[in-house]
Task: structure prediction
Amino acid sequence: MSSIVCLGTGYVGLVTGVCLAKIGHSVTCLDINEEKIHSLQRGIPPIFEEGLEQIIQEQNNTNLFFTTSYESISCADVVFLAVGTPSQSDGSVNLSYLIDAARELCQHISGHTTIIIKSTVPVGTNQMIHELLERESSSAATFSVVSNPEFLREGRAIDDFMHPDRIVVGARTSEDFNLLRSIYQGLNGENLNFIESNPETAELIKYASNAFLATKIAFINEMANLSRACNADIDAIGKAMGLDPRIGPEFLKPGPGYGGSCFPKDTRGLSHIAKSFDSPTTITDAVIQSNLMHQDAMVDYIVQNAPKNAQLTLWGLTFKAHTDDTRESPALAIAKKLLANGFHLNVYDPMHKRIPRSILPKNVSWSTSPEQATEASHAVVVLTEWPEFKTANWADIHDNMATPRIFDLRNLFNRAEMNAHSFEYFNLSHASTSTILL
Ligand code: UGA
Result:
């Protein structure tokens, strides 16, 4: 078993470190944020991720250690680099955290160290880090740099890590490919594939995968808007399309637009990378544009079908269910646009205790239950597909509201059921008849 340091305890670094400890490696998670590390040492993760806290508490101080000290790197055979690579205002990727981390490595690596880049990085970054280490590390230390992008979904990250469909490794030597195979040999994905390539290919696989998934979502959202205009049913369309194995059923659920810390950043990043190689990605550029326009379409839909200056209830602020993450959440963008259109907002999210109030302007009211948020409201707007909303008490909500109206921007509910509860129901289809193909 390898002695591993995971540098960076964000979603990717923490899940990677904790899961590697679970499959038997000795892992030290290193972060310069003292508050985070102290909390992790006490078994408390800074993020909500199903199953994470349990594994941390189970592995803490046996296979799993947390530190702020770079000294731990001198004893490691393997260092995973999983620091943030945020977007800059022009869409390019900010590599400063990665470069800072690599510089720290130079001071501390000894013997032979394999440095595995997990962060999503532009094509050529592995080579650039290799060259930086060659220039700046001591002549006694040897190292190799490997690309190993991640495909973890927030909310399902532990399961995705433990049961991967693919492990992508970009390296230049058979020793490095073999090392990565041995690190992951404790994992058992049903159809686990090892994809071995050069680092540039591995780096681009990550961007291509996220951009393609974002394209599917933008496409189905455009189809949803068209469906509303021509009395078609987007759920039936997505279902029928997904039955074609060449298309596949996943990522064809319409919604208020894709968000999160990955798709928006990575589509912008890919577009920027492609331009730097003078090979533009016009499809990805259109997807970025389409996703932004879709938020406006959602706001227009509400403006056209709710009373002027009405009181609205927003259900869900996170970018999707089962996470406390609101980064680039379409719910927040839509909330701000609704405020700009003169609406008054009362918001509820099941993760409300973990979401800082400062993410929305001060004139927004916050509630602690879905029902409470509907008090005197003219419409409920469903923005995140939290299961809790499915079991809402419609009789109470109906009594609470000034006018019983719902904008279901996740197509969570059934029109007949909502009509039976005497709600005026607007969803992403707005079809008058149901034509679900079964
Ligand atoms: C995404 C990818 O799915 C992961 O494979 C990847 O590892 C990760 O980014 C990353 O790069 O780190 P994640 O951001 O957790 O994972 O979220 P997704 O589940 O992919 O959802 C992204 C957005 O698309 C959400 O806003 C979600 O609501 C939306 N979505 C997803 C739809 O609107 N419709 C769908 O059918 C699927």
User: Anything to note?
Assistant: Residues 111 and 140 are 7 Å apart (CA to CA). Residues 432-438 have pLDDT under 50 and may be disordered. Residues 199-230 form the longest helix (32 residues).
